[in-house]
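=== RUN LOG ===
request id: a7f3
mode: sequence -> structure
chains: 1
length: 300
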Amino acid sequence: MAPDTVSLRYFLVLAQELNFTRAAARIGIAQPALSARMRRLEAELGTSLLVRNTRSVVLTTAGAALAESAPPALAALDRAWDAARNAGAGELGTLRIGYSLSAGAETAPALVDRLIRSSPGLEVGAVPMATPDITPAVADGRIDAGITRGEQPGRGVRRFLLRRMRIGVQLAQHHPLAGHPEIEIADAAAYPLRLPDRASNPVIHDQLAAIFRDTRPNPRFITPAVSFDMSQQDLRAGLILAPSGETAVITQTAGLTWRPLHGAPTMTFHLVLPREQSPLHHRIRTIAKALVHDLHWLPD
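=== RESULT ===
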């Protein structure tokens, strides 16, 4: 049986001081209590550690061996306790995050960076995923957390609002509407409107389309045959507009600009966590709340 670590730590202080009075004062206990601890420690080990007399303390061969080998053992034990406490606090382990492509412009990188900087013991991996796949992957444990554009449907998860942003349109810098600080919905609807493929994100597709529901004549929606993010030629030519969130300002290519739509609703991004949450999930939630506050993602 290994000795209790308190007595072992007391012994190391005594081995440095080689004086019961000084060692007891340094530890903050009475000298008789220290002497009793040392006798119990020797009894547990079945050997003498100290040679005592009225003036000095000398380590035996066993005592010298213990004084040399105990510090690294205690340091390893301390690391083990720290690892257990950090894991219990959600500050240690591997974190897998899936995010929708639109969240990769700003939202996901900001959260991942904050997680890495605030929890050095976390190994964070983040991968882009098709939006409809994120919630099921969180629910069945394939990933630990997700970031989605729009409140995506699905069971077995909890959703937390991360941010709201204005909806506007991407358009060519030379487009007639680009000179307006805000664009009226009816004015935008006079041009063909490029929407993302509904299969890639039904929630956002329907939200964007609904903005123009009451305009007359009925707007013309276009879904590009190639990737939504790569189809820019018609935009740069000024032939179409692309309804999108404000993060388009960050990702737009040369020749394009973004203007908000007057009276349009906001677009949301959500943190998706499993319904049954571990300390790791609580840690993610705590850090996300601090990030939302610091970056003013949810203004009053």
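=== NOTES ===
The two ends are 60 Å apart (CA to CA).
The chain has a mean pLDDT of 86.
=== END ===
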